[in-house]
Amino acid sequence: MSPPIVCLSMEGGAAATTPAALPYYVAFSQLLGLTLVAMTGAWLGLYRGGIAWESDLQFNAHPLCMVIGLIFLQGNALLVYRVFRNEAKRTTKVLHGLLHIFALVIALVGLVAVFDYHRKKGYADLYSLHSWCGILVFVLYFVQWLVGFSFFLFPGASFSLRSRYRPQHIFFGATIFLLSVGTALLGLKEALLFNLGGKYSAFEPEGVLANVLGLLLACFGGAVLYILTRADWKRPSQAEEQALSMDFKTLTEGDSPGSQ
Amino acid sequence: MSPPIVCLSMEGGAAATTPAALPYYVAFSQLLGLTLVAMTGAWLGLYRGGIAWESDLQFNAHPLCMVIGLIFLQGNALLVYRVFRNEAKRTTKVLHGLLHIFALVIALVGLVAVFDYHRKKGYADLYSLHSWCGILVFVLYFVQWLVGFSFFLFPGASFSLRSRYRPQHIFFGATIFLLSVGTALLGLKEALLFNLGGKYSAFEPEGVLANVLGLLLACFGGAVLYILTRADWKRPSQAEEQALSMDFKTLTEGDSPGSQ
Fold first, then answer.
1. Reduced to 3 states, what is the DSSP secondary structure of residue B99?
2. Contacts of residue B225 in chain A, CB cutoff 8 Å?
3. Which ranges carry the Cytochrome b561 domain (chains A, B) (predicted)?
4. In 3D, which of A197, A258, A212, A232 has the Cα closest to residue A21?
5. Which residues of B touch A260 (CB under 8 A)?
6. Which of B133, B80, B215, B122 is nearest to A219 (CA)?
7. What domains are defined for chain B?
8. Closest residue in chain B to residue A178, using alpha carbons only
9. What residue in A sits closest to B239 (Cα-Cα)?
């Protein structure tokens, strides 16, 4: 039984510190994310006529809302446990949940924008791969938020249930985020082919700018995934809880810590 | 030098078991992967006229080679350490490296097909987001293979160097695979918009089949990622080696295991 206890005391020391490289990686991810939002705005402003709700420009609210909500805010919601690693767990949880609500509401505005635009124009809905992936993202995101809320914020769930659900929550959170990035890439590609047509292959400035925007989207996804998955950057308290839950399980059920 | 020996003897003991659910998840991923390859073939055969090298059908070799090489084989190369968890480490390593070589060679045929087709038709190269992402995948894949080979198969690298590089290798391997899936989705979307145009929005059978193919691509990516990242499905020897390497580091350099 001694290894987890030794591990805890060593981790207790580590909890006070922040890994030296983490702030630089987080700063880099924020630089990428903000550039992404700014460049989406620049693309829509310079080449697509800007944004307005009551006109043909209503469509343009769709990409901007999705990049702000489902890419930038969702990505940052995933990073909350790495960035605020020394704050109280409950505060971090609430911030994580709130960022996801903001992301969802902004994304909903983006969803209404495109459906409303299609209705006014008489265009068909939900025929493209982009729209199928988008609806999948919304359903998964909503279910994940509901289940996450009931397990982690609502006071009913037991400690062991939370520990068992946590890895699934993290996996599906990362997957939904990556699917959002993929869906955004599909949407960008669709917009480029619809708007530029044959001019796309002539290296028009709009096409090059949008390609760079696509690469930035992929890089932001990669940067968030790197910070999220790096083992030695995980919030120490989570590992402590896990170890304690395993010790507790060992004591009560007689299982070995590695057996589950 | 004793820790690696201890590690080997522990590997013998721990290696006897396979997590109960793992084979089902692996079987499911293979079912998805094979359906993906078959459906790509069906799409090209039924709606795109089939495949031939010396004609306009040369283009069709591109999606088929990429789905077989950079999606199915690359995905399976990542799973080798989970599937063959009880085989000798060296055998598994060689299989991992070989699958990646097969994937790269098949993908190169797919790359030649599209460049050759563009040249014969007089089409512009490398203007689209799909092609930019594709070239990025190729460069990263090649570099990852070379660096992976020099660290893990070439006998020069030290034990501690390998341990320090391993997490980076795994992260970049998963990222390149996911970028390959994203690039395939972009290519599929491009083919649909070029070939179907306005008919895409009329729910043509080809469009629906290709959308399902796109969702299957995303699901295969998700299934491989799940098997790869589930903590209790990791090859036991790796965790033990890591721990032992840290202990060894502690003993020799006086660092605490959590300090790096």
1. helix
2. 171, 175
3. 28-229
4. A232
5. 232
6. B133
7. 21-233 (1.20.120.1770)
8. B178
9. A258
